[in-house]
Amino acid sequence: MSTQGTGIQCEQDGRPVQLVRLDEKGDLILDEEALSRCLEQRGVGDAPICLVSIIGEQRRGKSFLMNCLLRRLQHTEATDASWMGREDEALGGFECTNGTVTVTRGVWMWDQPLWVQAQGRKVAVFLVDTEGCLDLQRHMETSIKLSVFSTLLSSYWIFNISNTFTRTEADYLEMFIQVAKEVGETCNLTPIQRLDLLVRDWQLSGAFGVDGGQEYLRDITQDLEASAEQPLTLGALKTSSTWCYLLPHPGTGFTKSRAGTPGAVDEDFQQYLCDYISTIMCSAGTHVRTDRAGQRLTGAQLAARMKDVSRYLKTKRYDFSSPMKMAEAFAAIRQELNSRAVETARREYKQFVQEQDRDHQSMRSCLREKPLEMQRQLEGKRQELLEHCWGELRGEDLQKQEALKELKQELDRQMDKFLLVYKQRFKMMEENKRAVEDTRREYEQFVQKQDHDHQSMRSCLREKPLEMQRQLEGKRQELLEHCRGKLLGEDPQKQEALEELKQELDRQMNKFLLTYKQCFKMKAASLGLSIAGGVLAIVGTAVGVGAGVGVAVAAVTIEEAVALGVGAGGLSFGAGVASCFAAWCRRKVSRNTTGTNTGGQGNEREGEDGSSDQEPLLQGDR
């Protein structure tokens, strides 16, 4: 299948960046800045991601396969092999040679996402090339650590195999799956989501592609069942998420080529290669990275997990010299992570209980929340924290259940201890409320009695507002002191209850005093008008009769009216008129009686009748 003359230009955005490298001491270093540029860049940080990762021995064409995937994902609209470009055009992308020198050391990733549509959403696809995780020339510890990072950066694994699946490949896969299992339990990731066994240079039969591959996969699983030496590998290969695909030899022209151009491969190889690459492109969007609960991870979430693992490996200096040591190291990491998650939940619950205690110290706030309702709130918060902690715990479900059981017991102890105190406090506050209500009721009755006893004009005007206020304040203070002796609890709680009670009594007092003052003024004004009207009526009567006896009687009546006292406004006017008129009458009577008028008697001053405007408005009986 020739692609010559298609003229497709592969304008690639992005470049391969090395995320994990070896330093001078042989330790693995994660480039966190490069990782953030890839997985936390705009649009990727909050998007689901698919990571297609190829593992296998070096110099087996992994980089060539990766570049084919890159070219295909950059030309998703192509319906034939035109996406491969011209026959003499190098694919570009990841460095690719057919020599004996390893090109890509560590873990490399294409730094730009290759977007695909899947189930109505956009998925960012990244290509990851790992070199050295299955390299026998390297130290075992380095291989295992490289496998750790490769596992983290994989949701679609391609195990690149040459010729046949041998005992060596089975051992490699066993170790790799064990690493994936430990990493998955520690980082809350699905260990293996999709696994392809890609067998290159297949020559045992003429059946290629997926049909020949699935038949060969059945043969592999039968052999593994017979040997029973690689249980993890056997379990992984028997799942529905594992496929096998057979590719023929690419041809001698390709093996001699250094550039790896499309024109150097045989037509059969190109046909099956295009079919396999297109299959990956079409399904990549459905193989997004997920956690153990099946929830999709975003680029930012995966980057955070990788940084955490890198820091653990760097600071703790765990031994990864063998798969067993690696398992022990990850078990220690999980233990530390679980202890941290449990302690966080315990501390958050303690703070919640302390907040409930602080917010329900007063009588009002405490009585608003009955013990049963408080218990429901505490149980709800406990359940919320237990569920959250379950999601944070690492390891097998049995281990997580044990840790969660211990946490629940601790939270229950905190809850029971607080509820015991709270129930006692609630009961005490109910007693205090009764004491406060009794005091409030007694004061209300006292105020009502004052109101009832001062309804008449005489009783009202006999008690001025200021004197009434003194009586009410005295009663209030008496009741507050009495209530203080009946209240239970600490002094701050008593003081707060008394302060609220005082405010309530003050409201009752002020409300009554406002009405009382208005009533007092109205009665005083009414009395003044009555006196003034009485005086005018008496004057008219006295003038009409004109008899000495009548005048004397009128004068006496006026004296009695004046004796009622002085008020403001109309009262002053009425008393003044009455007083003046009384004096005039007396003088008239005196003159009429004696029939003589001496010089001194004619100069009598007003006001010498003995009346005063400073007496109480109403006086009691003497």
Automatic annotation (TrEMBL):
Domain of life, per UniProt, equals Eukaryota
Q: Provide the transmembrane region boundaries.
A: 527-555, 561-584
Domain named GB1/RHD3-type G: which ranges?
46-220
Look up keyword Transcription and say if it applies.
Answer: no
Q: Where is this region: Disordered?
A: 592-622
Asked if the keyword Chloroplast belongs to this entry, the reply reads: no
Could you list this entry's UniProt keywords, alphabetically sorted.
Coiled coil, GTP-binding, Membrane, Nucleotide-binding, Transmembrane, Transmembrane helix
The coiled-coil segments of this chain are 397-449
Q: Name one GO molecular function term.
A: GTP binding
Classification via PROSITE patterns: G_GB1_RHD3
Give the record's family classification: Belongs to the TRAFAC class dynamin-like GTPase superfamily. GB1/RHD3 GTPase family.
Annotated protein name in UniProt: GB1/RHD3-type G domain-containing protein
Which organism's genome codes for this protein?
A: Chelonoidis abingdonii
